Amino acid sequence: MPECHTIPCLLSPWSEWSDCSVTCGKGMRTRQRMLKSAAELGDCNEELEQAEKCMLPECPIDCELTEWSQWSECNTSCGKGHMIRTRMIKLEPQFGGAACPETVQRSKCRVRKCLRGPGMEKRRWKEAR
């Protein structure tokens, strides 16, 4: 018998590349093609799908902050004053990410009423002695 020849694969053209799998940063995209000849007519070892990496502009990164510190002591020993608390920036915003909010907060405080009036100097002098 004469030697049998296998029928070559009949394939459709490649499809267009898909959109990147992400909306920003690194992702993947694919394209496919179809087998047009019947599988039983011969072996077809051609690839039917391809994938490749794709890169879109970097994703926005928002500012990140530490937790607030404890409130400081009131800055006066009597009367009206203020206390503060702070937090640190852990990560600066990048690629259009949200800006950092305030890192210092101030709050009013009142310790005790300051004593005023005649005779206060004498009382302080006695207490100091």
TrEMBL record:
Gene behind this protein: Spon1
Pfam families: TSP1_spondin, TSP_1
SMART domains: TSP1
Every Spondin-like TSP1 domain range: 63-114
GO biological process, one term: cell adhesion
Superkingdom as given in the UniProt entry: Eukaryota
GO cellular component, as recorded: extracellular matrix
Keyword terms of this UniProt record: Disulfide bond, Glycoprotein, Signal
Record bears the keyword Disulfide bond: yes
Protein name: SPON1 protein
Protein's UniProt keywords contain Glycoprotein: yes
Cross-referenced InterPro entries: Spondin/Thrombospondin_T1, TSP1_rpt, TSP1_rpt_sf, TSP1_spondin_dom
Cross-referenced SUPFAM superfamilies: TSP-1 type 1 repeat
